[in-house]
Each structure stands twice: as structure tokens, then as C-alpha cells.
Amino acid sequence: MQNGAETPRLRMTEASETGRIEAFSDAVMAIAITLLVIELKVPHVDADHPSLGRALLESWASYLAYLVSFWSIGLAWMLHHNMFKLIPRADHVLLVLNTLFLLFIALVPYPTAIVAEYLESPGEQRTAMLIFSAMWLMVAIMINLLWWSARRHHLVVPGLDARVLRGITRRYLVGLLLYLLALALCLVSFEATMVVYVIVGVYYTLPGPDRIALAFRAPADLAD
Amino acid sequence: MQNGAETPRLRMTEASETGRIEAFSDAVMAIAITLLVIELKVPHVDADHPSLGRALLESWASYLAYLVSFWSIGLAWMLHHNMFKLIPRADHVLLVLNTLFLLFIALVPYPTAIVAEYLESPGEQRTAMLIFSAMWLMVAIMINLLWWSARRHHLVVPGLDARVLRGITRRYLVGLLLYLLALALCLVSFEATMVVYVIVGVYYTLPGPDRIALAFRAPADLAD
Amino acid sequence: MQNGAETPRLRMTEASETGRIEAFSDAVMAIAITLLVIELKVPHVDADHPSLGRALLESWASYLAYLVSFWSIGLAWMLHHNMFKLIPRADHVLLVLNTLFLLFIALVPYPTAIVAEYLESPGEQRTAMLIFSAMWLMVAIMINLLWWSARRHHLVVPGLDARVLRGITRRYLVGLLLYLLALALCLVSFEATMVVYVIVGVYYTLPGPDRIALAFRAPADLAD
Amino acid sequence: MQNGAETPRLRMTEASETGRIEAFSDAVMAIAITLLVIELKVPHVDADHPSLGRALLESWASYLAYLVSFWSIGLAWMLHHNMFKLIPRADHVLLVLNTLFLLFIALVPYPTAIVAEYLESPGEQRTAMLIFSAMWLMVAIMINLLWWSARRHHLVVPGLDARVLRGITRRYLVGLLLYLLALALCLVSFEATMVVYVIVGVYYTLPGPDRIALAFRAPADLAD
Known about the structure:
The structure is a homotetramer. By secondary structure, the first copy, chain A, is an all-alpha fold. Helix content of chain A is about 70%, strand content about 0%. Chain A has helices at about 15-35, 50-55, 60-85, 90-105, 110-120, 125-150, 160-185, 190-205, 210-215, 220. In chain A, helix 3 runs antiparallel to helix 5 (about 110-120), helix 6 (about 125-150) runs antiparallel to helix 7 (about 160-185) and helix 7 packs antiparallel against helix 9. The first copy, chain A, is elongated. The model of chain A is unreliable at about 1-15 and about 215-224 (pLDDT under 50). The interface between A and B is large, with 44 and 50 residues.
């Protein structure tokens, strides 16, 4: 069989399952990241906003929310993709957890629109930021559950260095703790929360042990 | 030829057709599942909804409809994908039936929005639920027709155990009957219908004989 | 090189170009066909539409436009895909013509929404139908131009039976003539135009010589 | 390994990384180009616009903005794809730059909608055109940064003729300069800016040295 791309071959129950999961997950993440733009509304010029330039400047909350969500989905895509490179096999639990992960990713445009709408409304800012942060915390929890479940059910590619594995686990946990901190800081101030999102963005934009793990593996190991 | 992914090779009339059908179907399902979020409207805070938190809580029908539709498309994707792994060849009837299947999948966001809008309106709740349930029944009917047509036209991979085949047929039929029940229960109460959707969700989230069928096949059989 | 799916190999100037064109075209068609649902608006129940059931029935023009456009994009996808299976190489003219083809496909939701809005408004029905029909005529013209340009620039796979080639050319031309007829009939009546769309739908849903051409080719010929 | 499409094999740290980047980038570009249609609003016929035909003609700014953005994303897709064919390896900087490139591509529908809304409003036309042109300039800057970073970090496929490399660099720079000119001309007149967009469209629609570079390479060189 030479046209594997067309009629995928199967070996074991769930082996090769992850290629299919990855393709579907990548599609959902690409769509969610591109759909964010739909929530950016063209401002209307009227008595309150006498010029388009001013009206656009006053939409800064929309652009900030767009930026944070775009970058965060981009990072989630990278984390997810690197993780599944280390997971050649999937079981049913992983499939279900991954669908839950996608549920929260696909939801991102909604809390993003809520933040864009209510970030400047003093009475509702906190609620909007809490919803936004709760959603990102759920994404981080799902990433950790995926990894934890894959390790527990022996789905991770064998022969990885124990220190590298611990490094990856730690990297995912740091994200979860930072998002938990962001959620808590919603009660303090919007600015403090945003500082955490910038830290998360910088932290995951830098290369981590998940990429290093891939580097240390010889091709023969990864060809399953 | 080694880059099958780029210029797919052809062997027989319809052989390898299903790879192409699957890719297009997967794209439509990924887009439909992610577009659901567009129907979630940011609530407006006004005299009736004095706080964002309250306004969000009052949108529970939207979230419920989102959850049911998201999970159901996710399950339809799994069922469809597992089915086409057992169908290496396609004929014209299968192509047409699959396009009808996609028509109802692509439609999902519309009845979902109708339910979100009218679930709390006493006079219209029943109509909204009937439309929603009729659409899912059509999805279930198309799944059954696809399988029935593939078996009748000898498109299913040969050598599958008869009991496994019957198990798969039964699994698809159970879904159809449950969706028929959900449609009938719309006339009784919204809560009863929802219980059926939860049962469908749990039933298909558990692994079924379609996955088991794949497990029992050796690679050589499936390499067409 | 064994992982062709990741780092596509190149041979000649434009050889293998079509795999890339096909993937991008398939994505645009899958998105356009799924975006159609966004134009279906949840009806509002008010004094004019005292019940949801009645309001939905009165939206029949939306559903009709949705059905015609969904099925037509589905057929365009099939025609496009079958055509590019016979075109292993692409030149710059083909790339530009294909982008124009995609421009009209991506536009489909707009005239579809215009028809849905104005089909029942006596003064504007004709204008709406003319725009809708003009767009589908452009799609048909682009399909014919793609094929004509591919044949003229010797991009079609060699060794095809002349009668089969003529059959394919005729099949594309019939569509163009039918869409031209549909455009002309807009001036007569909406119903007459719709009959032509049903004829087009049935004609292309039946298998044609493009599929037969594929059947007669041995794998060795198509492996470029 | 024959099913490369399913469980991608890894060789070096970042080798084969670009296949994954390309697939995600292609998906985002396909979605952004197809989402443009959502910003085309069905015109409402009222006292000001007594007929649908007239109302549509008066929406010319929307169609112009749609055309420019559709064609420009199409060209960006071609440029991006040809560039990554010459970049078999990726490093972290390239990944981050590419995500920034996608951020501006995914944003395209928003400035397009702003232009469509304000092109005919004398006081705001200039602001709208400035935003639109600034966004395209950012796309051009990212294209140039991607290429510059790939060359500097030795990610470009070795053995390319120095003149061809310079030709490609020049081709990207011409686009950046033209978009800079378009931005400056916003201050002069809308028509002058549009002439530059037509020139950019024609310039990149014609084949360039990036395609020629691919033609001169033997398959063995490109198989990494």
C-alpha cells in the first residue's frame, strides 16, 4: 500500500488513531483562531464617536482580547501538536479528553467577545475577566489531563529520558498554575491578570522540553 | 510514486474514493462543530438583566444546546470515521448519501440556535425541540443508510466476522431508535427529551463494535 | 524520502503543483458549503408571525436557497476533484483561473442570502434571481475555462481516449448552457429558473465520463 | 514506514517542522479568504434605496474591498507556499514569526469591513484606507522577516543559485515597498492607493524567481 494518505492502514486497536485525532484537532484550532476576527465589530461613527480614528482607539479592549486569544490558541496548538508527537497510540479515554479539550478551544471566541464588550464597564469587568480566565484554566486543565492520562495508560512513546518527561509534566503544570493565578487575580485587578497572560505567552513562546524530547529521539524510535 | 499525499494515485473506478470523501467530510464536520460558537450571543446588560453574571446564567439554554450539538457532532465524526475505515471503496450512491449526511451536519448550528432562542418560551419550546430532534434523526438515518448501502453494494472490507458486522449494524440502529424516541418525547416534555440525548451521548462515547472490528483486522487485510 | 506528507518533494517546475492547489481548493469549498448555514436566520415570533412553526414555514425561500447552493457547491467539488485527477501538472494560467474559480465559490453565501431575503418580494425577486444565476454561470464558466486551458496547455494526463475527452468537455459545456438558460429564465419566472437548477442537480449527481475516464486508467499511468 | 500521513516521523530537532507549519498556515489562509464573504451585507431596500439593483450598485465599495482582499490573500498563500518549499527546516524564531504572519492574515476581514463601511464617507475614507494599508504592510513585513530569518539561520535549502536567491529577496522587498507606497498614497487620494493595489496584484500574479528556483532543483536535493 503506497497511498497511505488516502486509505489509512490500521495495525492495532488504537494505534495510528492519533494521526486522525491530530488532523481533526488542528482543523478545529485553525478555525477557532480565524473565527476570532468575527467578534471584532466595525465601530459606528456618531455623536459619541465623532471620528473613525477615535472610535477605533476606543475599541482597544477588543484588540487586546483578540491578541491574547489568538496567541493563546496558537500556543495551545503548538503544545498539543508537540504532545501528540510523543503519543503514537490513543485509547478511548484520550479521545474523550481530547474532545473536551476541543470543546473549550472552540468556545474561545465567546468569552473573548464578552471581555471585548465588558472590559470597560466598571460593574461587569470582573465577571467578564473571570469567565475568560475560567475558560483558559479549563484549556490548561485539559492539556494536563491529556498528558497525565497518556502517561498513566502507557501511550507515550517508550524510551524517553525520565528527566525530559518530568520537564514536560512540569511545563504543563506551570501553565495550569499560571492560569489559576490569573483567575485569582481577576478579583484584584484587570491589569494584574493581564500581566499573567503576558507571562504565559512569553513562557510558552520560548522552546521547552517537549521540543527537546523530540530532538533527542532517533528517527527509528519514532517510526512506530 | 512516493508522494501519494500530493498526487493521489488511482487504481479502480471507485477505489481510493473514500480517502477523498473522508477528508472533505472531516473538514465539513470540523467547521460545523467550531461554527456553533457563533450562535452564542454576548448578553446585553440592561434593566431586565442588571448584571452580566445573571444575564449569563439566564442564557443556560444556549449553553445546553451548544453542549448537546458539540458532543453530538463529535460523536458523528467518530462514527463516520470508524465506518469509512471499513469502507475502502465507494460508489455513486454512497457519494450522494454522504453529501446528504453532510447537509444535515452542516445544518446543525441552525436548529441549535432555534433551541437556544426558544427553549424558555413556553409556547414555542415544543416546536423548537421538534425541529432540533428531527434534524438529529435525519443525521442518524443518513448514518444507517450509508452503512446499509455500503453493505448491500459490497463496499465493506471483506473478511469481517458476521457477529461484528451485526454488532455494528445494531449500534447504528440503536442511535436511530433513540433519536426517534427523543423526537416523540418532545411532545411529552423537554426534560424527557434531554435525558435521551444524554443517553445517546453516553452510549456512543463508550467504545463499540466498530472499533473492535478494526482491532481484529491485521494490517495486511486493510492495506487495499 | 518517505514522509511525503510532511515535506513534499518536487520534481519539475509545476509538477505536483496540483496536489497543493487541490488541498487549498477543497478547504475553500468545504468552508463555503458550511458557512451557508450562517445566512439562515432564526425567525422572530411577533404579531406578524404569531407562532414559531408558521414563521419557519414562511422562511421557505431561505431553505430553498440553502438547498440549491449546498448541493451545487457539493457538485462543483466533485467536478473540480475529478478534473484535477486528470491534471497532474499546473501552469501559471491554471493557478490564476483556479483562484478566480474559488473567488466565485467563496462568494456563494452572499447571492444565496440575497435570494433568501428577496425571493418573496415581488419587485426584487427578478434582480435577486439574476444575481444568483449570474454567479453560478461564472462558476460554470470557470470550470470550462480550467478544462479548456488545461487541454490547450497539454496539462491533461496523456493517453486518454479522445471520445472520453470529448465526453468530459461536453459534460462541462452542458452545465454552462444550463446555467445560461437559468439566467435567461430569470426574466420569465422564478419557477422556470428553479426547474433548471433541479435539472442541473440531477444531471451532475449522475456519474459522468470524468469518472469513467478515471476507471479506464491503469495505476502506472496516473503515477506521475 | 509507509503511513507517513498518520504518524509523522521525526529526524532532527526541527526538521520536518515546516510540513506542520504549512498545513496550519494553509488552513488559516483558506478560512480567512472564505470568511471575507461574511462582511458582505445584504442591502436593505427602503426609501433611500428604492430598488435592490440600485442598492447593490451602491455597495460597490464592499465588492472592491472584497476583491482586493481575496486576491491579496490568494497571492500571500502562493508566496508563503513557494517560500516554505525552499525552507525544509524551521527554528523557534521562524515559528513565532509565522504565527505573527498568520495573525495579520486572520485579521484581514476586519480592515476589509472597515473600508467597505467608510470608503464613501468623506471624513473617514482616509482613516479606513490607512488602516487597510497598514495591515497589508504588516503582512508584507512578515513575509520579508520570515525570508530574512530563514536565510540568516541557514534554514533555506542549500545549493540554490545566489542570483536566484537575490531575485527572491528582491521580489519580497518590491512588495514591501509597494505596500509602503500604498500607505503613503492614502494621504493623497483613495484612487492613487487603489492603483498601487492593482500593480501589486498584477506583479505577484506573474510568475517570479521563487517558482523558477523550484524548477532548477533536482528531486534529490529537495528530498531532505
